[in-house]
Amino acid sequence: MMRFDLADGGLRALNAALHALPPDTNETEWEVLNPKGAHAIAVGLDAPIEVTVRGSAGYYLAGMNKRATVRVTGSAGPGVAENMMSGTVIVEGDASQYAGATGRGGLLVIKGNAASRCGISMKGIDIVVHGNVGHMSAFMAQKGNLVVLGDAGEALGDSIYEARLFVRGRVRSLGADCIEKEMRPEHLALLEDLLRRGLAEGKARPEEFRRYGSARRLYNFHIDNASAY
Amino acid sequence: MCGIVGLFLKDPALEPELGRMLATMLVTLSDRGPDSAGIAIYGRRPEGTARITLRSEDPAHDFGALAADLTAALGSPVEVIRRDTHAVVELDADLVEAARAEVGRLRPAVKVMGVGQAIEIYKEVGLPKSVADRFGLAAMAGTHGIGHTRMATESAVTTMGAHPFSTGPDQCLVHNGSLSNHNAVRRQLIRAGMTFETENDTEVAAAFLTHRMDEGASLGQAMADMLTGLDGFYTFVVGTRDGFAVLRDPIACKPAVMAETDAYVAFGSEFRALADLPGIEGARVWEPEPATVYSWERAA
User: Fold this and answer.
1) Which of A89, B23, B96, B164 would disulfide-bridge A81, Cβ 3.0–4.6 Å?
2) Looking at the domain assignment, is residue A45 inside a domain?
3) B2 an active-site residue?
4) Interface confidence (ipTM) of the complex
């Protein structure tokens, strides 16, 4: 276990040490102490390591993550796991606005609530929120899955493309071109897998969710032309 | 971008520490706004007394002479306590209006920053650390306080354009964001008899609140009216003699984190500002919801 105290070493030294790790490093377990809401902790990682941040983080925790698993024991500020490519980010507390924004891949698990714009412009990431998400979540979401065990705020999935949204609780309102869709067996199977990977197994059952997605009336792409691309 | 901090104490044992805690919080957010900084601090003061916070552009201004001139003009002793470019005039509450008029007559260049039984306001151009040090913030005691560090967008980087803005007795408001209808609202408020010191959008928000409370609205009602009366981006933190309130606009782009324990309610633009508060590990920490008024009142 490698231990890094931000109160002594500072943020740049931490990120430089994490960036210097080769893909086959043996230093696979890291613990970060005294985050105290600092910005950009463990951003841009590209190694199969596990980083545990003890406390609460500020803006952009684990942004642009590749392959690493980053866990924060407290809450995360705006833009956690922004533009994540792969790997896993786990927030034990709450996440601030635009969690998982523009994420291309990987898994973001938020055990508390997420604020507004969760999964905005998501492009392939899977996001599992055990609590609620705020307004404008999955705005312009293009690809990937957003699972919400609690409620969703206003204008869920506004101007959505092809991401799938699963909400167990109440949706305050749907955004433009976002509609409820039929939950078919393949969606139940997908959801079962997402709940398991999202550490929510036993907290909720797939059949308790409703599925939302694009009505495909708003954007120019026409599904009948899909084979042309 | 701007940084806001606020601390409303529930446990009187912390009151001697208010300034020290507030200074730490404010300095932590320096990179959210390096232009200018300010604080409003509320203390326990005897009923029937008042304080006028004054500020002179001239750092060598002789506030002692002003005290003597005011004592002579009012026929009643006034005390003046100088802090850097500011000075607090302590006097009987029923002499406030006369004293304001005399300050305007005797020292036209001296600005009134705030008036009230409990409030003192200090603000200057510069980094939060330098502003806090110049005024000796860390040594100030009080019941609650609000601090702001500014990155100017809507008006010039001047002391008068710094926050907090105080437009009514014991009231102050700080703002992170920008208002888009402030010119129209300012014109309406001027017609209603309000006066303005600056071209700043935040001063309009403060005056809007003062005007609604003058009309009889409670702090909570007046803040709820801001949701329909003001257009733009905002997180507001407001202080009154016994109260503390927070409001975010319905879009809520501007960050806000709050923490509450048995000992205090704290506000920070970011969690960083709250990280060193006593008992923060066990505090309830949350983000205020959009378009929702949060307010706390101290039993008088």
Assistant:
1) A89
2) yes
3) yes
4) 0.88
